[in-house]
Amino acid sequence: MIIGIISDTHDNLPAVKKAIAVFNQQSVGLVIHAGDFVAPFTVKELGNLHCKVMGVFGNNDGEKLGLKKTFEKIGEIVEGIYIFELNNKKIAVTHLPEIAEPLWKSSQYDIVIYGHTHQLEYRQNKSLIINPGECGGWLTGRCTVALLDLISMEVRIYDL
Fold first, then answer.
1. What is the distance between the terminal CA atoms of the chain, rounded to a whole angstrom?
2. Which domain covers residue 122, as residue numbers?
3. In sequence order, what DSSP letters do the residues of the chain get, joined into one string?
4. Whose CB among 31, 56, 63, 132 lies 3.0–4.6 Å from 146's, allowing a Cys bridge?
5. What is the model's pTM?
6. Which parts of the chain have pLDDT scores under 70?
7. CATH code of 68's domain
8. Which of 29, 39, 10 is nearest to 143 (CA)?
9. What is the number of domains present in the chain?
């Protein structure tokens, strides 16, 4: 199974639409959003994905009730840390790097996903830590998402 990983969309709808096109073209089985959607209309656009979306709130997600309500149609969103298992891989998702780093170092999870820094990163020791960079492109000028093959644990980065 291949999963799509996205973060820090910050209401950049043209970039979100490009990300959706990549994820649908690559037939991802799940999209994970590591926070900072910002407004419900961004989540509504994610309804064009051909798969479920799981996400966590980021520090810029102020309209949480609206985001939760919009999310009901496409998947699930949680506050803090989202922990789940998929294809025998234990996955932890958070927005903040100061939470992600200890989770990764603990080796309790096969995959740790985070956002917030807008900086693309992936490292592997016993487990994998991934920040897909920023889909919004507002800080770095680079709009990126990641694809992760849960069997090979190979990470591919897509510039939008």
1. 22
2. 2-159
3. -EEEEE---TT-HHHHHHHHHHHHHTT-SEEEE-S---SHHHHHHHTTSSSEEEEE--TT---HHHHHHHHTTTEEEESS-EEEEETTEEEEE-S-HHHHHHHHHTT--SEEE--SS--EEEEESSSEEEEE--SS-TTTS--EEEEEETTT--EEEEE-
4. 132
5. 0.96
6. none
7. 3.60.21.10
8. 10
9. 1
